[in-house]
Write a sequence for this structure.
């Protein structure tokens, strides 16, 4: 069984390394790790309160709320867009990334 965790404030490879180190120290097996998202490959339940405390000590936040998760995914996508020097239109980029259409606002 895989468990996906969404983590706020992961913005670089150093953040990924810090989170990976702590999760490994807690005995979790990481299937994949990206900015803002970790997929654990394990059958044991995740100790949310313990994990939240450790992540907060590192300056991160475990996201549970669906809206908070979406906001963090958008932030991570924009960080990746900037790092890749993607000069495409932002609304087009976000629409294609999240596979949704957003209405164009006009006066």
């Amino acid at each position: 069984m895989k468990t996906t965790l969404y983590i706020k404030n992961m913005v670089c490879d150093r953040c990924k390394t810090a989170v990976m180190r702590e999760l490994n120290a807690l005995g979790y097996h990481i299937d994949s790790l990206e900015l803002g998202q970790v997929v654990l490959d394990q059958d044991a339940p995740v100790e949310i309160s313990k994990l939240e405390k450790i992540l907060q000590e590192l300056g991160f936040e475990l996201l549970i709320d669906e809206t908070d998760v979406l906001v963090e995914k958008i932030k991570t996508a924009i960080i990746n867009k900037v790092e890749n020097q993607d000069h495409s239109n932002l609304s087009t980029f976000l629409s294609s990334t999240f596979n949704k259409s957003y209405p164009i606002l006009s006066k």
